[in-house]
C-alpha cells in the first residue's frame, strides 16, 4: 500500500516544493524497508526528483490499515505544500513527480513472491445503486426526447 498525502514544508522537515518526498517513517514507526527502497530506486532509475523525510508529528493512512489487521507492506509518498487544511500552495512540479512515480511503480515488477497474491476479490463487496441517466444523443449530450 503506497499512501499519498501532503508533506508540509517546515523548519526541521526535509519536504520540498519540488519533487516527491518519500517518507521513511511517521509517528507510528518506520515504513516497509523493501517497498520504500523500491520507490527510491524507481526515482533514481527514472530521474524523478525526490527527497527523504521523517514525519514525527504525523500519522498516515497506512498506520490505520496496519492497525486494522492488514498484513501488507506500506509506504508514504508526499507532495510538498506550504500549508495544509486551508490556503494550500502546491507547486505543479511536486504533483507531476508524484504522478510519474506512481506511474512507474504501477508498471514495475513485483519482486517479493508473496506480494503477488491477491488479498481478496470483489465478491460480496457492496455496490452503489445506479440511477439511469437521461438518454444521450450520439454527440454525448442529453437528448430532448
UniProtKB/TrEMBL annotation:
Keyword Hydrolase on entry: yes
Protein name per its UniProtKB record: Uncharacterized protein
Superkingdom classification of source: Bacteria
SUPFAM superfamilies per the UniProt record, alphabetical: Zn-dependent exopeptidases (SSF53187)
Any one Gene Ontology molecular-function term assigned to this protein's record: hydrolase activity
Entry keyword annotation includes Hydrolase: yes
Keywords of this entry: Hydrolase, Metal-binding
Alphabetical list of Pfam families matching this protein: Peptidase_M42 (PF05343)
InterPro entries: Peptidase_M42, Peptidase_M42_aminopept
Region (Disordered) residue spans: 123-145
Signal peptide: none
Amino acid at each position: 500500500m503506497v499512501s499519498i498525502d501532503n508533506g508540509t514544508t517546515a523548519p526541521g522537515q526535509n519536504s520540498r516544493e519540488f519533487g516527491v518526498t518519500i517518507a521513511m517513517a511517521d509517528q507510528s514507526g518506520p515504513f516497509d524497508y523493501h517497498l520504500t527502497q523500491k520507490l527510491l530506486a524507481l526515482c533514481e532509475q527514472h530521474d524523478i526528483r525526490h527527497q527523504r523525510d521523517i514525519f514525527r508529528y504525523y500519522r498516515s493512512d497506512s498506520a490505520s490499515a496496519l492497525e486494522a489487521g492488514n498484513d501488507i507492506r506500506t509506504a508514504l509518498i508526499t507532495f510538498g505544500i506550504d500549508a495544509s487544511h486551508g490556503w494550500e500552495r502546491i507547486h505543479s512540479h511536486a504533483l507531476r513527480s508524484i504522478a510519474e512515480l506512481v506511474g512507474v511503480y504501477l508498471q514495475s515488477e513485483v519482486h517479493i513472491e508473496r506480494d503477488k497474491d491477491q488479498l481478496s476479490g470483489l465478491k460480496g463487496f457492496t455496490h452503489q445503486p445506479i440511477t439511469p441517466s437521461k438518454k444521450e444523443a450520439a454527440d454525448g449530450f442529453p437528448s430532448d426526447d
